[in-house]
């Protein structure tokens, strides 16, 4: 029997290393190994046997293959392959040429940058690369500053991906939720419920639309519609389908297979029952496989060489090694945390010292700090989703899903503001500015979203309902931005007079 202080040591080591070394995999690994040593009274042989058993049980347990874990890993790998195939082909260039001939005004250009980010939802990093490179010609033509383009790219990458269960984030988060035995309902339905309360992601999307529509911030745009220093290649018409068809196949295929598997598993004719009984893992795996095969077929028929496709596929496989390793380590440390009763110890402490009225705001700010310092929202998910869920489950079970939403929202906010985040760096480089320029110009809008998010979570804490909280989020960020725009107009008028 371990004492509470010793039981907390693996968690403290994980958090300290995550914040200082900024290596999530190392931090999780140290937490796993130290936890196993504590559980086995610091016996090397017993600890190695324990770790080996835990690793095997992630894939094979009680004479059964762990289909959920295997399907999730397969889905992540397939989405990584699809992302790399599209980003290394001419699909992005084709779409850029097609889009270039559809935009007529600066406002349309800005809104196009926003909505393109909404559509390219399969992966946050792919969205940063694709949208930035596609829209650079538009930004030059219509006088959109590179910092503003980077803001549109970043604000519609991770926030959108965190809301969509069919993105590369979806299986990752759903897998973590599925390991929480105290959650009722399916992991998929819980993800959807949590996404609805991810007020930071929602407010960020609203703010980006308002910024695009009114041209708020980033200085004045040129009066002329076209930048005379930019010469567009208007002879190339381009085609959107090389990029759109695989994404549509992924979305439609996932939904269709989920509904089909659910309909076969129940006698009900209700859609919600079909989704509740759906085989989420195999549906997303099969849809991802179909989307990858379709991508390969489209690229081959468009002239891409077979050897190049093989190389891109191999690169895509390698890019997902780190993400899959983090997920596997997340499952392992989740088991260690459960065996050490760490969550129960923290929940007991929180119940005595933390008011439930500030639970959601506290989790949001804590996760934002972790994600900002580490530059990793995924790493913060891995560490804080199980712990935040356990704490909320003990303090107030009604706040369980909102607490998980607060973890998600805080992680995305911290990642959004971090200069060492991979999405921040890619958004800047693909848009033509430095990461420092991008982060500095994005921070005011991120803080508006964070303030609106805190308002929404506090209203949920006061049991005023989801409708009131969401309305407050929408109204607060909208009023704040419109006030900024009005102040800008008044200052311009005074300068003229």
Number of strands: 2
> Structural class of the secondary elements?
mainly alpha
| Rg | 23 Å
Mean pLDDT: 82
Q: What is the approximate shape?
A: globular
Q: What percent of the residues sit in helical stretches (DSSP H or I)? A: over 70%
Order of H and E elements: HHHEEHHHHHHHHHHHHHHHHHHHHH
Report the major sheet.
2 strands, antiparallel
Beta-strand fraction estimate: under 5%
Physical arrangement of strands within the biggest beta sheet: 1-2
Summed up, the domain count is 1
Count helical runs. 24
From the N-terminal CA to the C-terminal CA, the straight-line distance is 77 Å
Low-confidence stretches: 220-234
Layout: helices, strands, pairs:
Blueprint (H helix, E strand, L loop, with lengths): L3 H17 L3 H16 L4 H14 L2 E2 L2 E2 L1 H22 L2 H10 L5 H14 L4 H18 L4 H10 L2 H4 L7 H10 L8 H10 L2 H16 L26 H25 L5 H6 L3 H22 L4 H14 L1 H20 L1 H12 L5 H16 L2 H19 L4 H18 L4 H10 L3 H27 L4 H31 L1
Antiparallel strand pairs: 1-2
Helix pairs in contact: 1-2, 2-3, 2-17, 4-10, 4-15, 4-16, 5-7, 6-7, 6-8, 6-12, 7-8, 7-22, 8-22, 8-23, 10-11, 10-20, 11-21, 12-23, 12-24, 13-15, 17-20, 18-20, 19-20, 19-21, 19-23, 20-21, 21-23, 22-23, 23-24
């Amino acid at each position: 029997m371990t004492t509470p202080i010793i039981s907390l040591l693996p968690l403290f080591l994980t958090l300290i290393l995550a914040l200082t070394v900024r290596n999530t995999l190392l931090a999780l690994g140290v937490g796993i190994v130290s936890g196993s040593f504590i559980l086995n009274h610091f016996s090397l042989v017993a600890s190695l046997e324990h770790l080996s058993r835990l690793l095997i049980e992630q894939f094979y347990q009680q004479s059964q293959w762990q289909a959920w874990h295997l399907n999730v890993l397969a889905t992540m790998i397939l989405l990584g392959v699809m992302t790399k195939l599209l980003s290394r082909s001419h699909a992005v260039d084709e779409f850029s040429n097609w889009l270039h001939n559809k935009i007529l005004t600066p406002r349309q250009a800005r809104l196009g940058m926003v909505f393109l980010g909404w559509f390219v939802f399969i992966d946050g990093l792919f969205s940063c690369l694709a949208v930035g490179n596609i829209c650079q010609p538009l930004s030059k033509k219509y006088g959109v500053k590179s910092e503003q383009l980077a803001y549109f790219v970043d604000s519609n990458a991770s926030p959108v991906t965190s809301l969509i269960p069919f993105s590369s984030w979806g299986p990752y988060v759903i897998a973590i939720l599925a390991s929480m035995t105290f959650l009722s309902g399916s992991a998929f339905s819980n993800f959807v419920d949590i996404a609805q309360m991810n007020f930071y992601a929602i407010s960020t999307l609203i703010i980006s639309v308002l910024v695009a529509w009114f041209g708020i911030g980033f200085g004045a745009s040129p009066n002329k519609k076209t930048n005379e220093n930019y010469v567009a290649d208007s002879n190339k018409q381009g085609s959107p389908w090389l990029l759109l068809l695989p994404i549509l196949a992924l979305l439609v295929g996932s939904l269709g297979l989920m509904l089909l598997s659910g309909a076969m598993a129940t006698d009900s004719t209700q859609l919600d029952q079909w989704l509740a009984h759906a085989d989420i893992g195999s549906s997303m795996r099969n849809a991802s496989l179909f989307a990858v095969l379709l991508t390969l077929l489209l690229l081959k028929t468009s002239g891409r060489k077979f050897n190049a496709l093989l190389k891109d596929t191999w690169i895509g496989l390698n890019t997902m090694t780190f993400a899959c390793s983090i997920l596997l380590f997340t499952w392992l440390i989740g088991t260690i945390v459960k065996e050490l009763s760490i969550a129960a110890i923290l929940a007991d402490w929180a119940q005595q010292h933390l008011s439930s009225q500030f639970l959601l705001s506290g989790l949001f700010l804590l996760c934002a700090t972790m994600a900002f310092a580490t530059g990793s929202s995924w790493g913060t998910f891995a560490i804080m989703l199980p712990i935040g869920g356990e704490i909320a489950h003990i303090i107030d079970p009604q706040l369980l899903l909102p607490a998980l939403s607060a973890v998600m929202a805080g992680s995305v906010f911290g990642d959004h503001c971090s200069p060492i985040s991979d999405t921040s760096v890619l958004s800047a480089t693909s848009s033509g500015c430095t990461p420092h320029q991008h982060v500095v110009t994005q921070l005011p809008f991120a803080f508006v979203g964070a303030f609106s998010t805190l308002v929404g979570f506090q209203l949920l804490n006061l049991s005023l309902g989801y409708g009131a909280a969401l309305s407050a989020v929408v109204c607060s960020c909208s009023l704040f931005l419109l006030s900024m725009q009005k102040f800008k107009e008044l200052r311009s008028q005074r300068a003229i007079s």
